[in-house]
Specification:
By secondary structure, this protein is an all-alpha fold. The protein has twelve helices and no strands.
Length: about 250
């Protein structure tokens, strides 16, 4: 890998870490950057998951207070996150390179739609909430397991889908929802990353360069998050993700 490629992926990870701390959508920059740098798609997906995982894990510590009092939901969703993340990672391992490459534009399209319409998705989920019941909890269990499998396989948009599942369960406090969402993202990505490491799917030089960039970007993003309008940043990410999705469809 040439110096230009290392600078490219470091910069992309720096931006991804900052965006994840401010508005989300970091993978729309870091994953395509790895592809441009010449990393094969499946290895790029695994490497991107590893590079961005420490930032997610660090965020869990900041939510310790909001996680207190959610023991039942933590146990339920954590078990599903570990199972779904493992299944998704194994599904990725079982997918051949050519098929995954063909799926990339559609995966990006799905993630772009989820990211773009996340407020509407959450609103619809909240409207579907009735009285708490065993059937409702069973529905959310099945839905979230599918979300966790998707997270282990690809992952972009995982947080938004998790928030929608929590809304279906009747959660309304956005801070407690974000805390639970962040913990589950750390677990889904963590078990997937462990699987990728054990199976030798990580490109270690790009992973280390990007991890450093993501940590620096995440720290800086958290420091400036209170000073800027996250909605404007989010709008920029939406348009860039749309452009990248179109580019991958044309390229394919």
């Amino acid at each position: 890998m040439e110096l230009f490629d290392l600078i490219l992926i470091f910069t992309a990870a720096l931006l991804a870490g900052a965006l994840n701390a401010i508005a989300g959508g970091g993978s729309f920059f870091s994953f395509p950057a790895l592809l441009v740098a010449g990393v094969s798609p499946i290895v790029a997906n695994a490497t991107n998951a590893l590079a961005l995982w420490p930032g997610t894990l660090a965020s869990v510590g900041a939510y310790r207070r909001e996680l207190s009092g959610q023991r039942n939901d933590i146990w339920l969703f954590s078990g599903l996150s570990l199972l779904g993340g493992l299944l998704g990672a194994l599904l990725l391992l079982a997918t051949d390179e050519q098929r995954f490459t063909a799926l990339i534009p559609y995966l990006l399209l799905f993630a772009t739609l989820i990211f773009t319409f996340s407020p509407q998705i959450t609103t619809v989920a909240q409207r579907l909430v009735g009285h708490s019941s065993r059937q409702q909890r069973l529905l959310v269990t099945v839905v979230y397991l599918a979300i966790a499998i998707y997270g282990g396989f690809f992952g972009a948009g995982l947080g938004i889908l998790t928030l929608a599942a929590l809304a279906l369960l009747g959660h309304e406090n956005i801070h407690r929802m974000n805390a639970l969402k962040t913990l589950q993202a750390a677990l889904v990505n963590g078990i997937a990353v462990l699987t990728f490491v054990v199976t030798g799917l990580i490109a270690w030089l790009p992973a280390l360069v990007m991890t450093a960039g993501a940590i620096i970007g995440g720290y800086g993003g958290a420091a400036i998050a209170r000073r800027i309008d996250a909605r404007r940043v989010r709008t920029v990410v939406v348009w860039i993700s749309i452009g990248l999705t179109v580019w991958f469809f044309v390229r394919g």
